[in-house]
Specification:
TPR-like_helical_dom_sf, Hsp90 protein binding, TPR_rpt, mainly alpha, STI1_HS-bd, Serine Threonine Protein Phosphatase 5, Tetratricopeptide repeat, flat, 434 Repressor (Amino-terminal Domain), STI1 domain-containing protein, 0% strand
């Protein structure tokens, strides 16, 4: 390949990147082209446009000047140069450049429009008269005082007053010309103003450019759409190569599919396969049609056919992955979750796609739920419970646990199974698991008092007396006359008092208090400012303490701390 051909190839890549608004890639491609053809003025013109679109106005101007230097008779070069000059704030030079370009091409509409805009902006700027009049813009001052030196100077009342005076009466500037402080501030303000105006011009240019490119892209898309939607005559179709004829039928099928014209889409896809039966993507499209028609079995059949063909012709693994994923989707609709899991796993083996990974998780979840439902059999659950009870009575708690687990799986809505398993957990020393089963039993049957009593018993084993009391109190809310619940409360109260008065075992009491602080309710009571004051008054101010104890809410919290072992009663 010759240097000219390499330059042309790089130029075409640059043009494509520019149209796609990938300006960095465009600049890189045009720069490569210039290496192979450094005297081609068009390459500099194109790179200038890319630099301008990226916001690099100085680089854009440099390339535009090089373009004009290489070909002074090319009008478009002057347009590029004028655009860049405008971006760097040299409006007058931009107007002069455009006038030179129009001498070469008087009817050039883009240059005429740009000239009119620049002349209008110049006229407006000249009409303002006072060059310092608009320095009161807060944005200008904010940018200026970002300079520490300027911010320091403006703290001086004399300097600040002088600057304000010049802004109101520019003719007074001469009397401050010898004051370096005033001229420094005014100079910084003017620079800030120019910078803001430059940024505004660049933003406006980029916005115009973006709008123009969007409009051009829209026209191209509309043209391409019209062309793709046009149905060819039979003679035109026959004149196409097999590959182009297959692609034509596939595109026509896609258009019908998007419009939900599924039967017509199917006809075109079938014609495409008649031309080339090895097109995996067409099998995938046919499967998609049957999926939309809710004919999931046929959808799966077409996917499998496409996969088979794809393996034979070594098709792109992404197409194979897509077919497996669609099989998974169809199996989910058919509630065949095991097959869905397999299909999604096969898809991910071909290509890791996040969406398919999420679908696999959902399929596994649904399979687990379906398996659990299929396993449910209350009669077998009762049989497992009876076997577990016999083992429990014989003291074989490990074997009993296996049977209780079986009972729960067979009938997960039976509260008695959870309560029995809680008792077995207690024997095995698995107190937290026992409490969880009691909670589940209560959730399933809130009136099952045995679960409240069993849960309280576990808390007693753990010396969490305040929680045990709460369990019995909750039981009384279900049946306020239940003697077992009342006896349980009395028994726990006696334990609390006994431990409080018991001498020795200070370490055990300390450990119980520390465990109690892990309870959020106890921790909140201890962190309550009012309760902290109450506890302090109990130790230091008996009179105030008596008033606190008359408050039922405070008394209830104190009792909770005593029950938990945080406060010791002597």
């Amino acid at each position: 390949m010759s240097d000219q051909e390499k330059a042309l190839a790089a130029k075409e890549r640059g043009n494509a990147a520019f149209k796609a608004r990938n300006f960095e890639d465009a600049i890189e491609a045009f720069s490569e082209a210039i290496k192979f053809d450094s005297t081609n003025h068009v390459l500099y013109s194109n790179r200038s446009a890319a630099f301008a679109s990226q916001g690099d106005s100085h680089a854009a101007l440099k390339d535009a000047e090089k373009c004009v230097e290489l070909n002074p008779s090319w009008a478009k070069g002057y347009s590029r140069k004028a655009t860049a000059l405008d971006l760097v704030g040299r409006k007058a030079d931009a107007i002069a450049t455009l006038q030179k370009g129009l001498e070469l091409d008087p009817q050039n509409q883009p240059m005429l429009q740009l000239l009119q805009r620049l002349q209008a902006e110049e006229a407006f700027s000249a009409s303002r008269g006072n060059p310092f009049g608009d320095l009161s813009d807060p944005a200008i001052w904010q940018k200026a005082i970002a300079n520490p030196q300027v911010a320091s100077l403006l703290e001086n009342a004399e300097v600040s007053a002088a600057v304000q005076n010049v802004m109101k009466n520019p003719q007074t500037l001469a009397q401050y010309m010898q004051d370096e402080r005033v001229t420094a501030v005014l100079g910084t303000l003017m620079q800030a103003k120019q910078q803001i105006e430059k940024e505004k011009r660049e933003a406006e240019y980029l916005e115009r450019k973006k709008k123009e490119e969007a409009e051009a892209k829209k026209k191209e898309e509309e043209k391409a759409k019209q062309e793709s939607e046009r149905q060819l005559t039979e003679d035109e179709i026959n004149a196409l190569s097999d590959n182009d004829r297959c692609l034509y039928f596939k595109k026509q099928g896609n258009l019908r599919y998007k419009k939900k014209q599924l039967d017509e889409a199917l006809e075109f896809y079938t014609k495409a396969l008649e031309v080339d039966g090895k097109r995996v993507e067409v099998y995938n499209n046919i499967a998609a049609v049957y999926f939309e028609k809710k004919e999931y079995e046929t959808c799966v059949e077409k996917c499998r056919k496409g996969i088979k063909v794809g393996r034979e012709v070594f098709a792109d693994f992404k197409l194979i992955a897509k077919a497996f994923a669609r099989i998974g989707n169809a199996m989910m609709k058919l509630a065949r979750y095991g097959e869905a899991v397999q299909a999604f796993e096969d898809s991910l083996t071909e290509d890791r796609v996040y969406d398919v990974e999420q679908k696999l998780k959902e399929a596994k979840k649904q399979k687990r739920i379906a398996d659990e439902k299929a396993y449910v059999n209350p009669e077998l659950g009762m049989q497992a419970k009876e076997e577990a009870n016999a083992l429990f009575k014989a003291g074989n708690f490990a074997a009993a646990m296996e049977k209780y687990n079986e009972a729960v799986k067979r009938d997960p809505t039976n509260h008695i199974h959870y309560s029995n398993r809680a008792a077995c957990y207690t024997k095995l020393g698995e107190f937290p698991l026992g409490i969880a089963d009691c909670d589940k039993a209560i959730e399933l049957c809130p009136t099952f008092l045995k679960a409240y009593s069993r849960k309280a018993g576990i808390h007693i084993f753990m010396k969490e007396y305040h929680k045990a009391l709460q369990c019995y109190e909750n039981g009384l809310k279900v049946d306020e006359n239940n003697q077992d619940m009342k006896d349980g409360i009395a028994r726990v109260r006696a334990m609390v008092m006994s431990e409080s008065h018991q001498q020795g075992d200070e370490q055990g009491k300390q450990q119980r208090a520390e465990r109690a602080m892990n309870d959020p309710e106890i921790r909140n009571i201890m962190q309550d400012p009012i309760m902290r004051q109450v506890l302090n008054d109990i130790q230091t101010n008996p009179a105030a303490a008596q008033k606190h104890l008359a408050n039922p809410d405070i008394m209830g919290k104190l009792q909770k701390l005593i029950d938990a072992g945080v406060i010791q009663v002597r």
